[in-house]
């Protein structure tokens, strides 16, 4: 039977274009045969969350909006790593750089934007990058392992997020800005000064009113020269000075462009059958760079393509609600005073709160909120609607509800328009959330998140989502608990208790008996159930490989180009000439593109083909370093008393003993250990999950540290005298954490949640420690080295025989 569907091609696999496709699939799922081309080797991901990836708070998998299965289930042909180089508008065909020629009936250009790179002398040097995609994040993470000083050019939102991430990576960061105060496009000067002070307390340095003149260095950057003659030392320069619409493809194809691709109110270009949406599009002279307007454009375009009557896109009044390095900030409309306007301000330096309203002709035309942004959505609605606020100004400024401000039912949220965007990260409107509650039966924030994606990214909109839930679900919301995911209302403790009570032994059995809302579960609950079952029944449960993420299924970290990295175990960071020679020979034999020292004192072989993994593991004949899973990663050590004149204990020996004791241990989140041979703490033991610091005559044991996106120093658990006691306490702590923490909960979060005293209360009783130690040894006794197992078992090895493809065809 001939497929009579029209051919729709989307150029650009980003947030705006794919959101338009999502809308179209809901309106007319069978109307089009859809093909998507994306230049990056990833499925559709949330670019807003790149700063979290940079700082280690999120993985690439966690910021993916639509995974490969989504494309497959909707019959979408996806080409990742393909750049469309030309369009034949007469024949209606697009051509990719990898030889694909694809016909179309309708074509959407969603080519996004490119970072603007200042044309400074020396800008081509190594170590000068932008902050725009996953590759930039990886470069920054790698640079932080070897270099110390970073300079970020640009004091806007993107620059500050890059700077915050680099701080978390342990670099010294200076932010260079040409203006006298930061984020001048979103904040007025008082709010900007408050933000700068907050960021300075976090360790950020600022060089304001600075004109960059040239980048210094030979092959690699060494510094940044300013017009006033001053020089800032730099091992890395990140340019975050703005973006420009990517219009090159459109220009050479005869599509009208100005700053962006020129479109009308229905997102149509001057050439029939070609549309543009997102950051690349210019509508009524404006190219938008915020998510909400781009999603509004996508909704109009989807209706147009589906043949559904719709008003055109009128343009957007923009607002920004964001969390800049942990600080809540909101701005909307015209927030600077102009002739004919007046401003009201409230400032509390002690609490760190600043509010400003700009009023013209008794209408709210702009607002700035710092520190307390709870009223942002309501203020933005008033700005858009042109509401008369005469007599209500002070109540609005101070956030005091009154009959004049409230809706007839006494709820300010009820007065918001249905098209008001609640979740700016994912473009979810009030109406979409209301529908999920009223028609979709969502009765918890978790269910709303699973259904609409509201609050699934930065979480800043969660209070508004909770308010809408209370408004539309009423008393029902009080009876429904938020579970581990949208598939169930059960929490972690309830699930574990029921698994234990009913002796449930498989993931499928748990979901069936505990009445999961979705038959197959989701990417969040399946790995957690797999872990809980393995933790409770270590000798009986058979690990369910399909419930693990890609990295854990293939026992290697997947890279942006679809290759993998191999990190063999190097106990305590201590190796030998023979071991180094073996690694070097294997790397040379398999033509590994890059060999790199990791932050955990190991060697990382990057760029390995999937089919080569078992052969490499076989020739290395070394244990897996488990750099890819929620397991014990590394035990970092200094040289301790073996060589250091300050060392008081054998740090290397203790580190090796700990690593050999707990390698292959499955845990709720990744676990890192360190042993410092003296209080100078060169191994950074006080920001690890379990840290050991040598003192005269014994060891300090520290717990709950984290060097990632949320830096947390450890808490002192206890002081012990002998090496055996270190192992005993470490065993007890790690097993207690395994048994009590939620899936994906790091020790830092767990310790803060349950409290240090409650952990001490359990572990200070030796009978408890010995019982926990026995249970962890039972769990460890059934583990095997995955690399060796795959090498020796033909059935497992077969999974690696074919190339892993990052596309659905």
- Which structural category fits the helices and strands? alpha/beta
CATH topology name of the largest domain, in short, is FAD/NAD(P)-binding domain
Count of folded domains? 7
Total strands: the figure is 36
CATH class of the largest domain: Alpha Beta
Q: Beta fraction of the residues?
A: 15-25%
Strand order of the largest sheet: 3-2-1-7-19
Q: What is the radius of gyration?
A: 28 Å
The CATH superfamily of the largest domain is known as: FAD/NAD(P)-binding domain
Count, helices? 26
- Mean pLDDT, rounded to whole units? 87
Straight-line N-to-C gap: 20 Å
Proportion of residues in helical segments:
25-40%
- Low-confidence runs (pLDDT<50, min 5 residues)? 400-410, 802-809
Largest sheet: 5 strands, parallel
CATH architect. name of the largest domain = 3-Layer(bba) Sandwich
The outline comes out as globular
Pfam families: Fer2_BFD, NIR_SIR, NIR_SIR_ferr, Pyr_redox_2, Rubredoxin_C
Domain Nitrite/sulphite reductase 4Fe-4S: 629-767
Domain BFD-like [2Fe-2S]-binding: 421-470, 484-533
Keywords: 2Fe-2S, 4Fe-4S, FAD, Flavoprotein, Heme, Iron, Iron-sulfur, Metal-binding, Nitrate assimilation, Oxidoreductase
